[in-house]
């Protein structure tokens, strides 16, 4: 299958070749023809699968087909002419033809950058990002150009809608990118409000890691007779990523092992995930002192600093990015060879997003989780979610004092290479539910990376709470003298609590009483 065979306009085919794409990815091969035919789409595919082009190329095709031959004046040009005539000019609301909603600013910028590549040979198609944290005057300038395509995070978009700066009456295409994540971040009301402001005649494409549960319900409400596309590519199953668990005894063991792993010859660039912003800063500092070119990336950083850090990563000046989940969403740096979970993620789906930072654009990657014995339950939850086992591996010279948790029938005292449970040096946790191992070499109340072994959880965890940035949960101080995880990015919020747009920068209060709208008949 070639891009030409998908029926795309010649100017788009030329641009994707220039972007280095030789043939469509599986999600593109399925989604592009269906979208060109005008179908609504519900697509379950992971980040890294080429989903941006899957929704953007057919949309651009539609615009290319209807692109006016004679260039008319933009509202900004009209305004300039009116001012020249001495008339008073009022701001005219932007009337985009396409809206892409994304959960994070990084992803929005990534979508906009990709769109600029794909429109290299199209006249009069502009894509702009409308993001929390961006100065309002700058956004007004962008909107005054009446861009055809808006890529936005929901909170800031609502502000502009409510102040009459954006009018969706001419909208033809609505895309919800990483819809599961937007719902997870508590954007449901904003999404409902935005969808309700768009015409019923629109084409809707929803992309999500899963189409089950709440996302599935919303997806069905906002689409009409959608074509459902579920891509289980090797990338989706992360077959191109070697996954491992290394057990650690304590933080000092964990830090020594991290240093060792980062010196691996096969490592080009790595992302190290921490549970808290504070740990991200501290570990980045420590790694710098140890001679690694490291940088932190988290939601307390200004957008400019976040962009500069990502640019340095892309240019290879930063080799190790120490990041929290929220900030790392949407990182697309193909040379990332390793992902290290210094702390396990709070939600199993975040594990999938984290490891998807490596093995991008058809490459291979390695994802290593450094796991305290008390956290073995959380590895099992991830395994249940991904329906894959994660082998336990031991690095020579860094063996944990305690043998791995007895989860797969192995007896305590199991040693690497004793012939039990898979390859020497590797063993899986997998075992039927019910054989609980009450790990815990720390007193309860102390936690590392947000987990407390099998202890009853009241603080959230995998129990379905929604979370978002702006709120903090304080963890107990650590007794072992290591990094004290105190602030958790993407903290928790109880239902109905007022929230701020996630991120610590440019956050603006959004009232809890913002209109609850239903989706109507769509
Ligand atoms: P996405 O899933 O949209 O985030 O894309 C992941 C990465 O794959 C990005 O770096 C894209 O530029 C790249 N990509 C998308 N489509 C193709 C393709 N057909 N061939 C090669 N690379 C692609």
UniProtKB/TrEMBL annotation:
Keyword Isomerase in annotation: no
Domain Helicase ATP-binding residue range list: 32-229
Domain Helicase C-terminal: from-to ranges: 257-402
UniProt protein name: DEAD/DEAH box helicase
Extent of motif Q motif: 1-29
Limits of the DEAD-box RNA helicase Q domain: 1-29
Family: Belongs to the DEAD box helicase family.
Domain of life: Bacteria
SUPFAM superfamilies: P-loop containing nucleoside triphosphate hydrolases
Region entry Disordered, spans: 397-522
InterPro entries: DEAD/DEAH_box_helicase_dom, DEAD/DEAH_RhlB, DEAD_box_RNA_helicase, Helicase_ATP-bd, Helicase_C-like, P-loop_NTPase, RNA-helicase_DEAD-box_CS, RNA_helicase_DEAD_Q_motif
GO molecular function terms listed in the Swiss-Prot or TrEMBL record: helicase activity
Keywords attached to this entry: ATP-binding, Helicase, Hydrolase, Nucleotide-binding
Compositional bias segments (type: Basic and acidic residues): 438-457, 465-477, 486-503, 510-522
Gene3D superfamilies from the UniProt entry: P-loop containing nucleotide triphosphate hydrolases (3.40.50.300)
ATP-binding found in the keyword field: yes
One matching Pfam family: DEAD
């Amino acid at each position: 299958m070639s891009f030409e065979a998908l029926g795309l306009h010649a100017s788009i085919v030329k641009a994707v070749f220039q972007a280095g794409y030789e043939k469509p990815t599986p999600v593109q091969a399925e989604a592009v023809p269906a979208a060109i035919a005008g179908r609504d789409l519900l697509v379950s595919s992971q980040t890294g699968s080429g989903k941006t082009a899957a929704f953007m190329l057919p949309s651009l095709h539609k615009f290319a087909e209807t692109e006016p031959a004679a260039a008319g004046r933009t509202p900004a040009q009209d305004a300039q002419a009116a001012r020249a005539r001495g008339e008073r000019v009022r701001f005219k609301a932007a009337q985009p033809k396409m809206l892409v909603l994304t959960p994070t600013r990084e992803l929005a910028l990534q979508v906009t950058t990709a769109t600029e590549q794909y429109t290299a040979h199209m006249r009069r198609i502009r894509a702009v990002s409308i993001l929390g944290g961006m100065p309002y005057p700058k956004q007004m300038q962008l909107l005054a150009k009446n861009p055809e395509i808006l890529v936005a995070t929901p909170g800031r978009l609502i502000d502009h809608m409510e102040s009459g700066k954006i009018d969706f009456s001419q909208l033809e295409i609505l895309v919800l990118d990483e819809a599961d994540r937007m719902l997870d971040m508590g954007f449901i009301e904003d999404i409902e409000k935005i969808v309700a402001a768009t015409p019923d005649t629109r084409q809707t494409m929803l992309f999500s890691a899963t189409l089950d549960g709440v996302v599935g319900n919303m997806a069905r409400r906002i689409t009409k007779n959608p074509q459902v596309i579920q891509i289980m590519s090797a990338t989706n199953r992360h077959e191109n990523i070697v996954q491992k668990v290394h057990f650690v005894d304590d933080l000092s063991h964990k830090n020594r092992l991290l240093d060792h792993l980062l010196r691996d010859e096969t490592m080009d660039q790595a992302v190290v995930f921490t549970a808290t912003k504070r740990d991200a800063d501290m570990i980045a500092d420590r790694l710098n002192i140890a001679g690694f070119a490291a940088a932190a990336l988290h939601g307390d950083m200004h957008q400019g600093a976040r962009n500069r850090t990502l640019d340095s990563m892309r240019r290879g000046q930063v080799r190790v990015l120490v990041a929290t989940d929220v900030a790392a969403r949407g990182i697309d740096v193909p040379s990332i060879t390793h992902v290290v979970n210094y702390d396990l993620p709070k939600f199993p789906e975040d594990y999938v997003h984290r490891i998807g930072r490596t093995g991008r654009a058809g490459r291979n990657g390695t994802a290593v989780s450094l796991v305290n014995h008390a956290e073995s339950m959380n590895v099992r939850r991830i395994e249940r979610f991904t329906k894959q086992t994660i082998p336990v591996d031991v690095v020579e010279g860094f063996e944990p004092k305690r043998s791995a948790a007895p989860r797969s029938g192995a007896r305590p005292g199991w040693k690497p290479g004793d012939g039990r449970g898979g390859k020497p040096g590797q063993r899986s946790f997998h075992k039927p539910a019910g054989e609980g191992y009450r790990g815990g070499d720390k007193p309860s109340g102390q936690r590392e990376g947000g987990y407390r072994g099998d202890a009853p959880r009241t603080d959230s965890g995998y129990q379905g709470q929604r979370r978002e940035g702006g709120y903090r949960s304080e963890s107990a101080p650590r007794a072992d003298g290591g990094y004290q995880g105190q602030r958790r990015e993407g903290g928790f919020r109880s239902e109905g609590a007022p929230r701020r747009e996630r991120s610590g920068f440019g956050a603006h209060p959004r009232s809890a009483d913002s209109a609850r709208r239903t989706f109507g008949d769509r």
